[in-house]
Amino acid sequence: MVETTVSTKNRVQPLPSxxxxxxxxxxxxIPMVIWALLIFSKGLFHGPLAERMAAITTTVFLAGxxxxxxxxxxxxxxxxxxxxxxxxxxxxxxxxxxVAQRGTMSISLEQMILGNTPFCHLALPMMALPAIxxxxxxxxxxxxxxxxxxxxxxxxxxxxxxxxLILGRGWCSWGxxxxxxxxxxxxxxxxxxxxxxxxxxxxxxxxxxxxxxVGTAISLSPFxxxxxxxxxxxxxxxxxxxxxxxxxxxxxxxxxxxxxxxxPFLTKKRTQCAFFCPLGPVQSLANKINIFELKTEPDRxxxxxxxxxxxxxxxxxxxxxxxxxVNMYCSRCxxxxxxxxxxxxxxxxxxxxxxxxxxxPRMLFLLATWIFATMFGGSILANSLGKILGYLI
Amino acid sequence: xxxxxxxxAYGAAVLTALFSLVLPIKIMPxxxxxxGALDLKIAPWFSGxxxxxxxxxxxxxxxxxxxxxxxxxxxGQKGFVQLVWQPRSVLPLKVQDSIDLNRDGTVDxxxxxxxxxxxxxxxxxxxxxxxPWVLPVQNSQTTSLSEVLIExxxxxxxxxxPVKKIGSS
Lengths: 393, 169
Fold this sequence. Notes:
With about 400 residues, chain A is mostly helical. In chain A, about 60% of the residues lie in helices and about 5% in strands.
């Protein structure tokens, strides 16, 4: 590695070779616009005015973000705009639906018995052991979608498997709306108040994963959802009717405040995703089978440490650059690739050499990712925007 | 050889993009039918388990479910039997009934519960056991999903009666 005095000023300067002219940028964006129009066609052509406006706004927004990625060669900042919008708008649509259905954000035992609890991807790791042992899903929802509960276990499982094959742990930066909330709070400050975060915290999600699997098996209830999910605060939670349910809500709110708001704000890291989420380790393992990855080139590295500072999930440090890879926790947000002025970190297709400019692997990754993001995140954005516009119009 | 590997790798990347494209159209429905074929079930301590038989009381009926003994594998020692009274609209303000839970010809318990018209009123359940496997309940409100429950359905009343395996303490 070459030691140098490169400024560590935190400015994004993607390699010029990744930038495109207006013509090619627009040409790549057009298919994405058509895809978005196809996805939103129901709302666009058959929905009420609010839905139509939401579909058009979402299509324009997604097209703008994709065009930005194409034209500038940047990945992280355009993605962040999309992802944070997804994070902050998801609860709006979700809570609106809950309130319309049952008049409250809280879920009653009656709704649980009727199997009307929406299933969440964060609950998936806990379900594996009981499903294998006794073909039982320990969750008060339904297996297949029904009118009262479209967010059934089967639907979320299908979506998650698809997303994991396409994105690996990229799901955590392109799909998981909860991560978007956290990233929003991590983006408020230009510089972190807490500069150094111990990398050993990245091991904690493995302990969380073990805890929720064992906790679920012992308590015969979805342990994470029942006791320690920070995002219950902005989705749904058991109706507060006893000391137990009051304690549960207190834990949810406390964890949300600490892990999703305060710590990301202070550290500029995604603390819930990187140090707490039990789905994170599963997604990290999925990185091993995903065809895309971020790769480093030690000969180009000048040890400036920008990538280490930029990474929101502590997936890269100067030592790992020497190993020619980011670690398995990488969520493919693109922060390190964007910030590296020497082109020492690049998107790559596994099994192919590290190439500079490396625009083809990045393009393939963005195409696969954006097609999924339009379908999944775009639908959520359009739905939530439709709800907001519905109230306003 | 290297060129072949590169070709395969880029091919897989293109296929991933194509997979992303067909995911909502083809893959999701296919995967849903696969999940359906797996014969997975929601844990019976949430769903109430399988319906066993129906008792017809003329104006209303009582659905009796199979006993559920929650356990990760096999059956636990304690559990519940779910009963559903329907339709709720024809039930009196105080419901009293004797139920044979396992159709062996003998009454297993006497159940009574309030059925107030006020939606916010608390429903209270009393169970007097007539068989050793049924556990008593005295003027109880809903406490938890797996123990005692009396809840207002939209048109039904759900009751879960605590039971134990014969021989367990």
